[in-house]
């Protein structure tokens, strides 16, 4: 195996751990609510909080820690990430659990941004997009294997062991990263104000809005998928895990569709993605009285979960290279920021609609968000040069 392939495998592994940490709660929310004697909506609200903290601390930590150099930053943040998972494993009440999740959220986004930035240093020329798909594949694997398997394993070994396992594997990944990644320092002379300039760029802000609305539309439903399966469709634990597993497999496939969309349509992918999301929500609302068709539409949602990933990441990196060449890591951070702003908006919208209209609301809320994003995506195509 070449050094580049080893680096990619390690990046996928780290991405899987980051995704597992973020998505595990979606697969065990009912168990956590029971364990801590709180409502499912309180557990769901942690997804919103996690995503907000995730996005905010990318903006804070990337400029402020630039003196550590990129490789050193990555190693130290992964060590901290491992520690926060150990804290989660020993949580003795809901508030300590929430604290440990927030602590984890403060550094996950920076790790993800650094991993994306390292792609340009390890990928062979012309294969950057393929390696980017590797990052998204790692996150998707957390849905494919993590969410359903963690949901199933929680009933056998308990959720605390699972978080401890993520922590232990994260420490192992530190050794792996040290062996395969270049000790890339980055441009530490770049001023903080120059790095923050990306957030004053109108092209970047439009891209963030479009990406966030796409993610928010899907996550208004996905955040509450596990309780939806158990409560609305009334599936048992085994059936729920099976459906989550199939959903995850389809989300893995969505990464490859995302890559194809980028190669075929470039940024013109964005309006097409919104149209696909809108059609999915309309179909979902039409089949609400038929459990079989509901399960099928859930599986279809898996295929659109990460469609936005590759086109959005390439868009942000290209804007950064063209307008802000010195802010390489900050440019790579924009997609994780937009993604988690979308998760926050989507889970908050889904929670509010769930409270107001029960599970019918999470479909309607997603449809509204997608319809808001469609015209913005059309403006993006016209405004930003390909």
CA radius of gyration: 20 Å
- Give the helix level as a range of percent: over 70%
| Mean pLDDT across residues | 85
Structural class: mainly alpha
> What's the β-strand tally?
0
What is the second-level CATH architecture?
Up-down Bundle
* CATH homology-level superfamily: MFS general substrate transporter like domains
Number of structural units classed as domains = 1
Structure description:
- This protein is mainly α and 386 residues long.
- It has one domain: MFS general substrate transporter like domains (Growth Hormone, Chain: A).
- The protein is built from 15 helices and no strands.
- It has helices at 3-36, 40-64, 70-89, 94-122, 128-157, 159-180, 192-196, 202-222, 225-232, 237-265, 269-286, 291-302, 309-323, 328-357, 360-383.
- The mean pLDDT is 85.
List keywords for this structure.
globular; single chain; Growth Hormone, Chain: A; mainly alpha; 386 residues
